[in-house]
């Protein structure tokens, strides 16, 4: 019987259940269920509604059963760094707080007064983002932490609710900034700094480990398939990289969704002085690889603009409007912290342009174009830095994820970076999740075989640099960033 695989892929703004089967050496993908996600203010903090997410997953699985699939394999991936505190009775103590909550604003400064930044980077190789689990735990309610039996990362917690089995998967665990890069275990000293004991975490497992069966008896109000859960690369970005069919030997990727994660796959971590200076991270990838990358603000900015316009325009309409305006009409350091969670993104962008003495974008098209132009420039600048740190030239860029559908952004990126861009698949995260399941079930031999299947199964569009266009723009942008306080990336 043809095996059926389901990817539960949940991002900050939406979740989906994608079903796949291998047919004639190709991956066939069908979206079975999609739902909105987001955080809301509750008990003083921006929190995820984790019970709602789990309910939507069960509804999706019910649809799958009713569509005639009675036995499936399932993997779960979500965004990283956030966690659920679980008490001794096995239940969550509260809803998880979002990484965009403001509680960690000063945490890096406070914690690194005790253990220096250099030491933390040396130990973990992880970039400094003030929302890393390390800083969230540092700011955690001490009473709740004392009552906590297990600290579970979001996808592991979902897996635990579904199966009763608790693990800590390493691609996601690495984003805590608490795993020792060399030893692959939690750094005792960092744990002590945040008052956490090693036994408060479940046991570490690698991507591609069977977890257990869905406890159908506990969810009797749903009509569910017989489901074997596999722990995949549970960090969405790790799944996206597995799902990226790189071209050639020196390829970089952008996993383009709420965030743009720009980097390359390494077999050996790179945590030397240049990587430290540029705040590059060595997140663990599936199968012993490292995701050497940088977080860039990404389509979050467009998502907020869409929301600020009361959802009057779809993403493709915004891109359409943008394409009618002039690119590079203003320079913006899109990684400025002020864009992490502003009250109103449009006003924040306008204020930034006003304060820096630039033309203020007004129409929805101009605002969207300001974001796309500066994303393209930021990407191009980061590729230069990446080349410098790794010591060889990146020659192709694979853009995957929802953002790979924005042809305008792909073309601008290719031209200002002077590099061939391959765009797609847009569902790389779900595809990477499915690929790890297929490898675990021995239906596919390994990651290179999976990537060949992905190349053969999905449309990948090629964008070439437009010669002679926007000459000197990137240099002007870099000069702009280096002028007073504009270069400080988060
Ligand atoms: C992307 C992502 C990034 C991570 C950020 C916060 O969805 O997982 O990799 O830095 O969200 O968790």
UniProtKB/TrEMBL annotation:
Coiled coil (UniProt feature): none
Domain of life, per lineage: Bacteria
Positions that bind substrate: 80, 235-237, 295
Reaction(s) the record says it catalyses: L-rhamnulose + ATP = L-rhamnulose 1-phosphate + ADP + H(+)
Active site: 236
Functional note: Involved in the catabolism of L-rhamnose (6-deoxy-L-mannose). Catalyzes the transfer of the gamma-phosphate group from ATP to the 1-hydroxyl group of L-rhamnulose to yield L-rhamnulose 1-phosphate.
Listed name of the protein: Rhamnulokinase
Species per Swiss-Prot/TrEMBL record: Lactobacillus melliventris
